[in-house]
Amino acid sequence: MRSPSCTRRALLRALIAAGMMGQSIALASGQGSFPNKPVRLIVPFAPGGSTDVLTRLIGAQMSTRLKEPVTVENRTGASGNIAADYVAKAPPDGYTLVMGSIGTHATNSLIYRNMPYDPVNDFAPIALAGEVTLVLVVHPDLQVQSVSELVQLLKNRPGSISYASGGVGASQHLAAELFKYSTHTSMLHVPYKGSAGALVDLVSGRVPVMFADLPLVLPHIENGALRALAVCDPVRNAVIPRVQTMQEAGVADYVATAWYALFAPAQTPADHLQILQRNVADILQAPEVIKAIQDIGAKPGDAVGEKLRAFQLKEIARWKTVVKVAGISMDN
């Protein structure tokens, strides 16, 4: 017969084992509950630009659906590389995401000699958030009323007209270089730290030309502060239907868009990614979100997960020739 002390020790060991098992179950349960703390959306560009506007719109919807705060943080610099690199090196848990762009997740890798991150391998794709129409606008003081008149002016004054962009490698920069390549013209590039900064000098007339995100310049087109010559989409935009496409204006096969997509760090757990992908996809299909995005001259994205990855790889290949011909490069 076992002594009372042996029985007590056995009971104590059993209780400790049970407690440890219960603690393990609780930890596993807690780890499986995603998200259970605030999510951060990192924007690579300054507040006020299309990337920032779209991120805040989606972030507000994510907060409601995920039932956790979703904060938006702007980290500018190096054409978006600073923000993208920050997220690439963040803990891969799904709580720190980046709203990538054609620059940060496609063309910067073609432009910068020494990239701090790999735009493909260092990230897990969540969803294409939106594609924003680019529109060729000029300040009214520039005496041109059409694309053909601008082309003629540029040929008459090669290299003397400047254009603004949100930074080297930004969609606005690439669109302008594609235009120069397609029309055999030249312009002087003036890069800014984000589109919002470029807008100030554009509206003042200090820099007279820009291939701008439509949401950014739409109010200024409507009030006459800027003149729209053409949209860069293959079809006209319903927000400004009277403005012809670049192809209608005589620039054959010309298409350029700005796009923005959510990425998480590579190695983010698959179940966390699936939750994010599902929720963002649902957000982009909500009628009120579709209307809000369309009202600013953009359209919701429809590529989620590996479809976004395929889109990203296609964009890298598509712009490689333009970058090479234009000689766009940054030594860092």
Describe the protein's architecture and organization:
The protein has 332 residues and is of the alpha/beta class. It is built from 11 helices and 10 strands. It has helices at residues 4-32, 50-66, 81-88, 103-111, 147-156, 171-183, 195-204, 214-222, 270-285, 287-295, 306-326, and strands at residues 39-43, 70-74, 96-101, 123-138, 162-165, 188-191, 209-213, 227-231, 257-265, 298-300. Strands 1, 2, 3, 4, 5, 6, 7, 8, 9 and 10 form a 10-stranded mixed sheet that branches. Helix 2 crosses helix 9 (270-285). The N and C termini lie far apart (80 Å).
Determine and state the CATH class of the largest domain: Alpha Beta
Tell me the structural class.
Answer: alpha/beta
The amount of helix comes to 40-55%
Do you know the CATH architecture of the largest domain?
A: 3-Layer(aba) Sandwich
Distance between the termini: 80 Å
Q: Low-confidence parts, pLDDT < 50 over ≥5 residues?
A: 4-8, 14-31
Element layout with pairings:
Layout (H helix, E strand, L loop, with lengths): L3 H29 L6 E5 L6 H17 L3 E5 L6 H8 L7 E6 L1 H9 L11 E16 L8 H10 L5 E4 L5 H13 L4 E4 L3 H10 L4 E5 H9 L4 E5 L25 E9 L4 H16 L1 H9 L2 E3 L5 H21 L6
Parallel strand pairs: 1-2, 1-3, 5-6, 5-7
Antiparallel strand pairs: 3-9, 4-7, 4-8, 4-9, 4-10
What's this entry about, in short?
The protein has 11 helices and 10 strands. With 332 residues, the protein is of the alpha/beta class.
